[in-house]
Amino acid sequence: MPFRSLTPLFSVSPQLSITDVDQAAADGFKAIVCARPDGEGPGQIPAGTIEQAAHERGLAFAAIPVPSGSTPDEAAVAAMRSALDAMPGPVLAYCQGGGRAARLWALAQAGTMPAEAILAAGRNAGIDLSPLSARLTAPAEAQPTGGQKAPRRFNVVIAGGGAAGLATAASILRRRPGLSVAIVEPSPTHFYQPGWTLVGGGVFTPEQTKRPEEGLIPAGATWVRQAVASFLPEQREVALDDGTTLSYDILVVATGLVLDWSAIPGLAETLGRNGVTSNYRYDLAPYTWQLIQGLTRGTALFTQPPMPIKCAGAPQKAMYLACDAWRRRGVLTDISVAFDTATPALFGVPAFVPALMAYIERYGIDLHLRSKLVAVDGDRRVATFERTTTEGTTRIERGFDMLHAVPPQIAPAIVSGSALAGADGFVAVDPATLRHTSFADVFALGDVAGTSNAKTAAAVRKQAPVVAVNVLAALDGKAPVATYDGYGACPLTVERGRIVLAEFGYGGKLEPTLPLWLLRGTQPTRLAWFLKEKIMPPLYWHAMLRGHELMVAPRITQGA
After folding, report:
1. Which of 34, 95, 311, 323 does the annotation list as catalytic?
2. Does 311 participate in catalysis according to the annotation?
C-alpha cells in the first residue's frame, strides 16, 4: 500500500493490514499510530492486532481513536503530541482513509509549526486540512472548532465503492450519462473477494484479486475519497468523515457489511499465527494455503457462524479445497478434519446438499450442525464451540493444528444506528424493488441490503441493473419499474477442478443461468470450475463493474 507523506518524519495511510505493517518496517518507519476506533467497518483489523504485529517487528505503537465524522478533540490532540514526542520517527498513522490521522497530526503541530506549512504539507499529500485553519493559527486549546463546509449536491450519491456501488454507478451512467453521480469510498484499493477462496486454495495469487479503485470509477462519476460518517435521510444528506456533507436527490447505500472478528474472544489476537486463518481477509488467504501445504498430520477445524454472512458456501469451500490438496499429497488419512457450522443444515438450499454430503463422506469430515465457535486460545491452539442438540446446549474444547475461522457478520454501525435500518440492522428495503420501505429516495443493494437472498457478488450483478433502472424512475418522479427475484449464486468448490454451481432465488427456488443439462443440475462439474477460474474474474472486472449487463437484464414491470 502506498503511504502518503506529510513530512519526512510523518506519513498517513488507510487501514493497515499485517502485510502493510511489514511494508512499514521495511520502509524504515519506527512507530505506528492508530487513529481509528475498532469496529467501524467491514474487515477492519482491530488495533490490538496491529499493535502486536508492530511490536513483533520492533515498531512503537499508540492508539488514539477519533470517532468517524468528528474532528479530534483536545484530549486526542494532547495524546498525539505526547506520542510524537515519545516515539522515534518516522511515524506512520492510519485510520479508515488517512484523513483523521492527518488532522490529528495537524492539530498536534499547531503553535509549533506555521499554519501555512501545515496546510501545505496536507496539500502535498492530497489531504485538505483547510477546515482546521482557525485551530492552526495558535495553540489548539485556544481555538474554536470551526464550522462545516456547505454541502455539495449530486443527483445520485452512492455510499460505497465496492462491487455494488461501482456496478450501480456504471449502469446508471450508461443509461443517462449527464447525471451527477458521487461515489463515496475511502479505500484506494478494490478487491475481488470471490477470488480469495482460490488464493487460499493455491490457485490464484493475492495480487490477482486487487486493483486500484481509481481505475474502476466510471467515466462521469465523482470519486469522493472519504468515509461516510452518518446518514441524514430526513435532510437528504450524507455526512462525511472530514466533517463535510453531500446532499442528494437519490441515495444508494452499498456499504457492505462488517466482519465482527471481536465477537469471538481471542480470535482477532491470533489471526495470521498459531495456525489460525481465514479466507475472508485478503492478507490471511495466503496463510491458509501456507498452512495447507505445511500440514501433514493433526487436526484441522473449519467453522461457519450464524447467518447472514458473505457467500454462505465459502466456509466449506475452504475445507473442500484443503481436503483435496491433502488427498492428492496422500496425507488426508493422517489429518482429522471437522466442520462446525452454526446453521441447521449443511447448505440452505436442500437440492445441493446431497452432492455436498458425498464430499463430506469422501473426505471423512466430522460434521457438526448447530455448532458455533465462541472462543479461541491461539497460544494453546484450542477452539471452544457451543453446540445445540435436542438435549440442550453444551460447550466443548477442541485442540487444533489449523483453524479456518469465519466471524459473525453485521451491518455497519453507520447503518444500524441510522433511520435507514430495519430490525436486523441492515437497510430496510422492499425485496423486489430494493427501494427503502420508508424513504422513497433511498435504495440499497449488496451485502448491506436487508433482503433474504444470498450475499454474493452474483447477487450484486443482478441487483445493480434493477437499482439503476429504479433510481432513474425515481429521479423522473415515477414508481419503481424493475424487480429483483432474489437471484444469487455460490460456486461450491468441492475439489480442484470441480464445482457445484448453486444458483437460486428467493425461497431457494433454483435459478440456473445455463441449461441444467449443461451443468448436470446440482452435481459437480468441470465446466463450473472453468467458469469460476477463467470466466468470472474478467466478467467481474470488465463487464459487471463497467455496466455491461450480460445475461442480467432487469425484469421490467409490465406496462411500465
Report:
1. 311
2. yes
